[in-house]
């Protein structure tokens, strides 16, 4: 993979957003994920380590190898792990399409918010599958921006969300990939696939979640796309800003916000099939 497809960029604010997201969603996304003592786990696409921390904390006796294509992100993830004294995690800079591991190295693969950025997610999953021991498993977690709905409804807010969907598509990714997890895993040759929707619902009774998810996670993510959306002619500054204002409005006590993540688990058999084009 020659180009980095991460549409959100690597600014300090994006790193902060990733950490806010992880803190707000740890129980929702990581419930049911724990690895046995001695298991060797690959986290493919660790970014700044926002998901590494809860992943490792819930499996203190597993060995975790976390990789990312961005050296600065790996350095940040390494620092975060050290701050939490997570000594069972080691880090490496590596491309998901050229991972420096032998086939059958891992008991489990964990992929979170990575497939959405890839032009060839099936090819990536196929490569990850080859790194699993026979009977090894994968956990994949992805969002789906098309699942976002809110009150008060706003055409401007929906248009701002659509800008990010279009930008990600132009970069080769798919901001709607959550709904595709089952067929993607099936095409990559995984079996025993199980997908569960993990819904975030926010209203006036959950002010902390309104702050941490509606404002700091989702709206901040859309707001971060403003320069690229305007430069691409997808929106005007005024129209985009109106949409962002309306998204923040949904976090008020009389507003509501709903978004669905999808979490899939699957198994690898002993004989990987040939790679399929996505």
Architecture overview:
By secondary structure, the protein is an alpha/beta fold. It is 38% helix and 22% strand. It has one domain (12-267): Vaccinia Virus protein VP39 (Rossmann fold), CATH 3.40.50.150. The protein has helices at 12-30, 52-57, 71-83, 121-130, 155-170, 181-187, 207-223, 226-231, 237-249, and strands at residues 40-44, 63-68, 89-93, 106-112, 132-143, 149-151, 191-202, 256-267. Strands 1, 2, 3, 4, 5, 6, 7 and 8 form an eight-stranded mixed sheet that branches. The radius of gyration is 18 Å and the shape is globular. Mean pLDDT is 90; it is low at 271-278.
Helix proportion: 25-40%
Provide the residue-averaged pLDDT.
90
Number of domains: 1
Could you give the order of the helices and strands? HEHEHEEHEEHHEHHHE
Give the termini separation: 14 Å
Return the CATH architecture.
3-Layer(aba) Sandwich
Helix-strand category? alpha/beta
Rg of Cα set:
18 Å
What is the beta-strand fraction? 15-25%
Biggest beta sheet attributes = 8 strands, mixed
Uncertain segments are: 271-278
Shape: globular
CATH superfamily: Vaccinia Virus protein VP39
CATH topology grouping: Rossmann fold
Q: Compute the number of strand runs.
A: 8
So how many helices? 9
Q: In CATH's first tier, which class applies?
A: Alpha Beta
